[in-house]
Amino acid sequence: DARVEEATSSYLNGLMELEVGESGFGNVKSGDAVKRPLRKEYQEKRAELAARIGTTLTGPEQQRAFQQRSTIADRQFDARLYRHTSEQTTVYKKQVFEGVIATERKQAALNWEQPGGVEMPLLRINNAIDLYAADNGLKDKEVVDNMKSIAATQVHSGVINMMLSKGYDKAAQVYYGGVKGKLTAEGVAVLAIKLDAASTDGAAIRGVDEIWLKLGPKSGNDPVAIADMEQAARDKYRDDPRLIRAMIGELRSRAT
Q: CA 15 to CA 18: how far, in whole Å?
């Protein structure tokens, strides 16, 4: 029957619009797909579409033929709708999980001087990892422990970076020594290089402060005895050429 064929085509096109159209469920992502009653919402829209198209048919034969064809399309539509909401639930949970990790990393970096300022974020991160692993069927303890190790490395790296940004290179070295055994091998390597450079810079600044206090100009009209101060640095730190170079650079920077 041509009218049944036309109605079926209209219905299939309408279902595609409900799925991939501008306001289709396929464009509802992540948290929006989880927080809205998406399945109920689009099943109701599907039912409304079927009822509207059904009114264009006359006679029980046409109605029955359309219902048979639309039933198959309904099952396929619902299967895609269920799959989409399931996939977006997984996406949303991962985004929430990653958001928790990122927030706790920032909290640790900001509050490292406070009692529990690092320990509490680490505890919350480990709990979040345990929940995420259970929710996603991750039963391999080695995999879960590796996730925690990576997260801990990120937390401790953030704390050390915050210390260094404030000029606390000595405190950062002490902190690193205390957490080194909890870091990934890559984290140890990266932080060791960064701390070594920061330690040299910090020592250079402190060393120059001392020399400048002794040999630097006492008033605005006094000459800057840069050669004497550079020699003082060489004499005092003769066994550390890298520190000497950093100090000479700092002295010349201050002298200009």
A: 5
SS3 139: coil
b (16+ CB within 10 A) / e for 73-110: bbeebeebbeebbeebeeebbeeebeebbeebbebbbe
CB 75 within 8 A of CB 43: no
Residues 203, 205, 210, 212: is their CA dihedral positive or negative? positive
Q: How far is CA 42 from the centre of its chain?
A: 32
| Per-residue confidence band for 46, with pLDDT thresholds at 50, 70 and 90 | very high
User: To the nearest whole number, what is the mean pLDDT of the chain?
Assistant: 92
SS3 75: helix
Q: Are residues 179 and 156 in contact, defined by beta-carbon separation less than 8 angstroms? A: yes
Q: Give the CA radius of gyration of the chain.
A: 34
- Using alpha carbons, select from 175, 62, 163, 148 the residue that is nearest to residue 109: 163
Whether 220 shows a pLDDT value over 80: the answer reads no
Contact 245, 230 (CB under 8 A): no
CA distance 5 to 57: 11
State both tokens at 149: 């190790």
DSSP-assigned letter for residue 180: G
- 229 φ/ψ angles, rounded to the nearest 5 degrees: -70, -40
DSSP 33: H
Rounded to whole angstroms, the Cα distance separating 196 from 209 reads 20
Q: Which amino acid type is present at position 218?
A: K
Q: Which residue has the tokens 């010349």?
A: 252
Quick one: tokens of 192?
Answer: 């060791």
Question: How many C-alpha atoms does 93 have within 13 Å on its Cβ side?
Answer: 14
Whether the per-residue pLDDT at 6 is higher than 90: the answer is yes
